[in-house]
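Quick one: structure for this chain?
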Amino acid sequence: MRFPEIKWRAVGAQLLMLLALGTVGSAIRNKGCYTPDWPSLDSRPLPEWFDKAKFGVFVHWGVYSVPSWGSEWFWWHWKGQGAPQYQSFMQNNYPPDFSYADFAPQFTAHFFNPDEWADLFLAAGAKYVVLTAKHHEGFTNWPSPRSWNWNSKDVGPHRDLVGDLGTAIRKRNIRYGLYYSLLEWFHPLYLHDKKNGFKTQYFVTAKSIPELYDLVNRYKPDLIWSDGDWESSDTYWNSTGFLSWLYNVSPVKSEVVVNDRWGVNCSCHHGGYYNCEDKFKPSSLPGHKWEMCSSIDKLSWGYRRDIVMSDIADEAEIISELVQTVSMGGNYLLNIGPTKDGLIVPVFQERLLAVGKWLRINGEAIYASKPWRMQSEKNTSLCYTSKGSTVYAIFLHWPDNGVLSLKSPQATSTTQIMMLGIQKDLKWSTSPSEGLLIYLPQLSPSAFPVEFGWTIKMTGVK
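Got it. Here's what it folds into:
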């Protein structure tokens, strides 16, 4: 079955009629305290749960998980870009008339157990999970009425993946977010708008805005992770109109969080919190809440059969990114890509469980923390966080002499110092130059609760 041709012969005329009648557009008009403009929308306080959460799990899962080769941009590289290696892959592995739509029935999710996924994310210490409800290929992981025969209920899994995972996630008191791509590479109405220089909004009115409304009303997500905005302005996407409704009228108006990908030049400027770009790392403390999204597979967000171990971030790399991100006031969203069958492969499980083990010991310095006056020690791998008057120093390399030198904290008469996971005070002295010298426990490596990334807790310092 060929999705693009069959789908639009069947429903194209009906959608255009809806556009003409204005029935979709009327839904976005609303009344409330946040008007559909960036000065008003950007004045909304960020719900505090997001800043406290610090760590989340990102899940990229869709039809691209079937070829599982190259990246989740498989369809674009094959047909949109015409990349030779993707064309060769298809020629060598599939019949000549095989289309991207033919992958969809193989996206079975046969072994998908949402409770097992949720238990894994809970063990990983994740406070929120973001699932791809729809990537740039347009396939929706819920029964969207706007994606006839190109959604997880009509074809492939024949189930509501967004709903099933959301139910399991919320049973464990984890916040649930949904990724949604505004654009679709090969959608006829999107291509029509694109050809018109985005001076028409047929795709937005018939597809993206109604689906965003459907996702919010149906699943009540705690977070909307928007993407696919880069080809046109927020005016084309009607972003401010949607966000005004979301903040004023929607069933999640008080708790919902959104990112910054709502149109050209919006990233790092507008939205609830900033992603800026994939794997963003600021050079100094940002003045706005932000999030770093990273992937265990360094070369892809979706699952790849051709992955090798050198492409996998190791535990030390992941913990280091987490610590550096949180010390700079950010959240860390770590991605995995499940298989077409709904399995999370063991190496991804192992990495997530390693993060969870580390957080069970050091989470006090991460969850609900704030950046300290100094975020790191210059020319070291040591970072600081804080909670009220308590300061945490997280060091990623054990000093050879067993003495940790901290230049930034200053001792007082009430200073007390300990290491998380080691329930006793540590000896310390003031440095001849400035700061503190902390004498680390002299224990065998097996006696330490973690093998990488240790946290010093300090009270009574200035």
